Each structure stands twice: as C-alpha cells, then as structure tokens.
Amino acid sequence: MSYANTKPVPAYVQIKDYVRNQIETGVWPMGSLIPSEHDLLKQFGVSRMTVNRALRELTDDQILHRVQGAGTFVASQKYQSTLVEIKSISDEIKSRGGQHHSEVLILERTGDAKALEALGLPPGAEAFHSRIVHFENDVPIQLEDRFVNPQLYPHYLEQDFRAITPNEYMTLEAPLQRAEYVITARMPDATARHRLRMDIGDPCLVLHRRTWAHEQIATDVTLWHPSSRYQFSGSF
C-alpha cells in the first residue's frame, strides 16, 4: 500500500487563495473594502503575522491596495495592451479570458481639416470618422476616436462595429504595413471622462497612432485609457 506524500498548505497561502476566490467570483468587487486583519485572524484562527503576510503579498501582486488608516481594498485591475504589434482589442481581451463588447457613438463622414491633413487627403475631400467605447467584462477600458482613409476602406461606414472591431475589418480589407505612435498622460475632456466612467481629476493614458497600408496613410486614431486600470507593455 502506498501513501501520497503531500504537505499541508501553509495558512497564509490558504488565506491568499480565499481572498483571490472572493475577488474572482465577484463577492468582493473592485474598490471594495475587505475584512480587517482582526476579522480574518478570527475567521481562520491564525496569528496576525500570518494574515499580515497574506495581505502583504497580495498587495505586492497589485491585487489589493492598502490605505493607512482606512483599510485594505480590492485594487482596480490594470488591463494591458501590447505595443509590439497592432492587435484587435477584442483579441487582447479574449486572450486574458475576458469578454469584449463595444458601443458605437459616432460613425460618419467628415470634412474636418485636421483629419484630412493627418490622412494626407486634399482640402475638400472627405474622411470617415468613428468613435467607439470598448469594454472588458462590462468595464470601459478604451475610447477609440478614429479617422479613416476612404480610398483604402470604402465600406468602412457599412460595418457593424458591435460585431467586428475596426482593426479586424481593416486587416481583412487592406492589412497595415507600418505605424507610428506617441503615448502621453493627459486629462480627459468631459465626454471621455463620462464614457470611461472616470472620476474628476483622474488622468488618461493616451495613444495617438497613424498607420499605413499600400503606401498610403490608412488611419489616424487616438485611444484614451483610464490610467488607473490600464497599462501598455512591449518587448523587442
């Protein structure tokens, strides 16, 4: 007869697993105050040192946020985007196990002079313009304000961007060849703040990007992200 050689799970790990489960199942939503160290040590019958270690490690992992004198809160999740390649935000969200949906605010023709200049189109021409909010698990994480060259994407205004993202459509129609971008920290205007459900005074991470296809400027897009729940990453 053989016996499994298993070690008991340390108490602080059990507490970490419990806290993670409460967050992942939505019992403790983002921003909520979790039980105090005193409440947790009574619940689990362990020392304050054990509870403190569990909460400290979860704080280091940016799962919890501790405020001196106020308590410990569930940290806001920072959604991540890659800068190495241009991917559909829908694919990025799905790769993290999340659910994506979008809300189309504007889908129109425009003769905006700055947009035409950015796209390399002559004065008096028309560009296409869309403004879309992207959600991850019902949390708004990106406001996309995009101007499009109609010579490359003549059917842009006919697309249902609740079912397909602009990036997905453009990749099928005229794949992008190259891009240039700039990232800045900026305060959102009232419209962006409202659409992204941000508090007054919170900044955005803003990505401004131009792309090329068939040796023409394809799009000029500004992507607004709440800095408290979004981050960019990349490697080369």
UniProtKB/TrEMBL annotation:
* InterPro entries noted in UniProt: Bact_HTH_transcr_reg, Chorismate_lyase_/UTRA_dom_sf, His_ut_repres, Tscrpt_reg_HTH_GntR, UTRA, WH-like_DNA-bd_sf, WH_DNA-bd_sf
The source's superkingdom equals Bacteria
Q: Name one Pfam family in it.
A: GntR
Q: Which NCBIfam families match?
A: his_ut_repres
- Source gene? hutC
Keywords per UniProt: DNA-binding, Transcription, Transcription regulation
What lineage is on file? Bacteria, Pseudomonadati, Pseudomonadota, Betaproteobacteria, Neisseriales
Q: Does the keyword Transcription apply?
A: yes
Recorded hits in PROSITE patterns, A to Z, give: HTH_GNTR
Q: Where is the HTH gntR-type domain?
A: 9-77
Q: Tell me the protein's name.
A: Histidine utilization repressor
Which PANTHER family has this protein been placed in?
MANNOSYL-D-GLYCERATE TRANSPORT/METABOLISM SYSTEM REPRESSOR MNGR-RELATED, TRANSCRIPTIONAL REGULATOR PHNF-RELATED
